[in-house]
Design brief:
This protein has 460 residues and is an all-alpha fold. Helix content is 80%, strand content 0%. It contains 15 helices and no strands.
Amino acid sequence: MRLLTRDKSFYRSLVLLAIPVALQNLITFAVTFADNLMVSSLGDSAVSGVYMGGQIQTFLQVFSGGIEGSILILAAQYWGKRDTASIKRIVAIGVQFSLFFGAILSVVCMAFPAQIIGLFTHEAAVIADGATYLRIVCLSYIFFCLTQALIASMRSVEVARIGMFVSGISLFVNVGLNYVLIFGKIGFPAMGIRGAAIATLVSRIVETGVMALYVARIDDKLRIRFSDLLQLDKDLRKDFIRYGLPIIGGQVVWSVNMMANSAILGRFSASVITAASVANTMNSLAYVVMNGMSSAVGIITGKTVGAGKTELMKEYARTVQILFLCLGLLTGGAIALLKRPFIGLYSGITPEAAAYAFQFINVLSVTIIGTCYQAAGLFGLVKSGGDIGFVFKNDSIFVFLVVLPSAILAAYLGAPVWVVFACLKCDQILKCFVAVVKINRFNWMKNLTRDKPLPETANE
């Protein structure tokens, strides 16, 4: 039994898929980071307002990520069979669900921005700034949903670079407009938080246009046309709902967890909220490489399981566990070493907020080790391998029976804020004990494809 596979194609595929996805994630992070840095000059309430307004974007990303995950997991297994007709029908179903959700969320946020921000904090200044930001940025949600669904369709057939390219354009547009609109350059008035929201909206519209052009005119694997997105397939819709609901449910559970995190920390001062924004931004940065590699593992897993190569998949699974444990240790060390200069980038925050951020990042330097191992194992292997329901149940148990109760209790008992923050992140370590047992039983490999290809399948 080999601990590390000798299959060079695995490492080659891992790198070729991970790099574009990681760079796309890095660019996406850079857009948010640029918003935070530029807005930080406006003070703590502005940073906190954008952070709280961004929680709805986080909810959107998590829910949209569930639909993307459904597309990716199902389509990757069909890609193992080169059944492109089924993949296009799966993409159409995912796009339809994604656009519906994006439209509903946009309408709700447009109608009740202050009430939604008020769910997370009682600070009047934060609510006012957050509502201003949310009222504009919510118009971008439908564009974001469409773009991410199309990017997932491309990733499922091992085309990852387009997502990186689209995100690069989005970064250029967003940062440029941030500079112009927030601070009032080249003849524009200084719009502050409104400027940041408008910049985000415009960048989302641009990236949707570029992505739609690519899938319709340039891609030669799926050749998706607008008419393809209108297709209805009852059998594959049943499969999408059957296998997609646990994925979406897991993402919703996680989004509830994220918003509850904000609500719990939002009961503290604006300095604590600002510190959480800084710490979570660093966590997102640290997550970039790991998430890219984890996504690459998921694509490889789906393709391998879909092709019926179970023994090879076991070899890959052992390799993944070792690689990601090492990655976690390296990432944790890097966070510990870089926390001071990173916090120093936020020149506009108060010394109190900086002190809290220092404590929170110390916590993250430990929990990121568990994040690297269990996220890659449970998503990249178990969920992508076909055992979708297990991950949903596991996440639900940890969020509702461990994470939130422990954090609420700690806050109620008056524990230091860093202890409350540690409770909110404790599952990242605890899930590792579940993951190591589940992965090495190898009972998660399940072929989700239908045996008979759909008509007009192009076997490329």
